[in-house]
C-alpha cells in the first residue's frame, strides 16, 4: 500500500505555467453571507509559489486568521486563460480552484471536513506554529469522509501581481502533512 496523501497527475504541466501561474499572487473577495444572513466579503489571498506548492492567507469569513501552505497540483485548461489548482488540507478539507486569467475570477469547490467547518476557530492560526499544525490535523479525525460542507463559490480578483506580497515564503521541502 502506498503512503497517502499522494498527488497523481498524468497530464504533463503545460509549458505556459511560468508565464500564466508561477509566482502569481491573487487577492480576491467572495460575496458571501454572515451567519445571520447579512452580506459580507470573505477575503482570500493566494500565492502560486511553485509548480508543487501554494501559500495562502484568509482575511474574511469564518476561516479568517488561517495562514497556510500546501502541496498542490496544477492543470492547464486553456493556456493564457484557465488553470485548475487542487490541494488537500491537513484538516481533511479538499479544495479545487479554477483561476480564470482573462475574466479575473476564481471559482472554487471547497469540501470542508466536518471538523474544519464545525470548529472553524480551531482551524485558525499559522501552519508554521506546531501547536496550530497539530490541532488542524486533529480536525480531520472528526466525522467521516461523507460528513462535508460542500461550498461552491466564485470570487472577483481585486489584485493580481507577482511575488510574495505579505505572505511568508516557504521551502519546497517544508512539511505539508
From TrEMBL:
SUPFAM superfamilies, A to Z: Lipocalins
Molecular-function GO term, any one: carboxy-lyase activity
Pfam family, one: PA_decarbox
Entries under Gene3D superfamilies matching the protein: 2.40.128.20
Name of the protein in its database record: Putative phenol acid carboxylase
Record organism: Microdochium bolleyi
Native organism taxonomy: Eukaryota, Fungi, Dikarya, Ascomycota, Pezizomycotina
Amino acid at each position: 500500500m502506498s503512503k497517502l496523501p499522494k498527488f497523481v497527475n498524468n497530464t504533463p504541466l503545460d509549458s505556459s505555467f511560468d508565464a500564466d501561474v508561477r509566482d502569481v499572487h491573487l487577492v480576491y473577495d467572495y460575496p458571501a453571507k454572515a451567519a445571520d444572513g447579512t452580506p459580507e466579503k470573505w477575503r482570500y489571498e493566494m500565492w502560486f509559489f511553485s509548480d508543487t506548492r501554494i501559500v495562502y492567507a484568509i482575511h474574511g469569513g469564518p476561516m479568517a486568521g488561517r495562514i497556510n501552505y500546501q502541496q498542490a497540483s496544477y492543470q492547464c485548461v486553456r493556456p493564457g486563460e484557465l488553470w485548475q489548482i487542487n490541494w488537500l488540507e491537513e484538516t481533511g478539507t479538499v479544495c479545487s480552484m479554477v483561476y480564470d486569467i482573462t475574466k479575473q475570477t476564481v471559482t472554487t469547490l471547497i469540501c470542508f471536513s466536518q471538523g474544519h467547518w464545525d470548529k472553524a476557530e480551531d482551524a485558525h492560526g499559522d501552519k508554521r506554529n506546531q501547536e496550530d499544525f497539530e490541532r488542524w490535523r486533529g480536525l480531520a479525525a472528526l466525522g467521516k469522509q461523507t460528513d462535508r460542507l460542500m461550498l461552491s463559490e466564485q470570487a472577483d480578483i481585486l489584485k493580481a501581481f507577482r511575488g510574495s506580497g505579505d505572505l511568508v515564503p516557504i521551502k519546497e521541502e517544508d512539511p505539508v502533512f
